[in-house]
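To the wet lab folks,

You asked to see what we're planning to order before we commit. Fair enough. Below is the target structure as tokens, and below that is the sequence we designed to fit it. If anything looks off to you, flag it before the synthesis order goes out.
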């Protein structure tokens, strides 16, 4: 999870450097982050999406974080009672 946090901070720094003003960066940032969040696999099942949205899964750092947490939590569970 620390790597995912570092990626998010890096994206924030990059957007801030590109746009220069904090107000403009805060207005533009959701345009990039919300699709990555939506197609990360937590809110929408990626297999239910049309095939042309599949590449967004691989660009989403949320998908990698969600997969890491899911593997960590469920790898030792054999049965659910």
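Sequence we intend to order:
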């Amino acid at each position: 999870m620390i790597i995912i946090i570092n990626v998010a901070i890096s994206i924030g720094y990059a957007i801030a450097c590109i746009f220069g003003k904090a107000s403009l960066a805060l207005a533009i940032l959701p345009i990039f982050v919300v699709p990555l969040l939506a197609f990360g696999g937590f809110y929408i099942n990626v297999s239910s999406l049309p095939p042309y949205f599949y590449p967004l899964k691989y660009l989403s750092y949320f998908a990698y974080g969600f997969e890491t947490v899911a593997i960590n939590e469920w790898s030792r569970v054999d049965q659910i009672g």
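Structural context that might help your review: The first helix runs from residue 2 to 19. The mean pLDDT is 87.

Thanks,
Computational group
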